[in-house]
């Protein structure tokens, strides 16, 4: 059983997933700070000094904090948009690398003799065209 667990835990996909979760958590904190400390205060100023985190309704003894919900939705939208841009960048880079590999595979490499023969052929074509 220990060997199975060790094989599972050391497998590349699990480690990649763990790194992704840790980086995602840290990224979430950065975006939350961006929203809470920069974006929402500016939005509040534009809307006349409204602080979204304080917005709530009282229904009997219950307090519905819809301002916190609005702030969480803004967090989500910024995180989703950031991830979209990051994935788009990675896909673009991947496509460029793939095209470069295809070009390298399709372009034959010529020996020195073939290069010289190609140059001679091209020179002969030029001479025929000028005649």
From TrEMBL:
Q: Which superkingdom is the protein from?
A: Bacteria
Is Membrane one of the keywords UniProt gives this record?
yes
Q: How does it sit in the membrane?
A: Multi-pass membrane protein
Where in or outside the cell it occurs: the entry states: Cell membrane
What's the subunit arrangement here?
Answer: Homopentamer.
Q: Provide the function of this protein.
A: Channel that opens in response to stretch forces in the membrane lipid bilayer. May participate in the regulation of osmotic pressure changes within the cell.
In which family does this protein belong, per the annotation?
Belongs to the MscL family.
Q: What is this protein called?
A: Large-conductance mechanosensitive channel
Q: Which organism is it from?
A: Geobacillus jurassicus
Name the gene that codes for it.
mscL
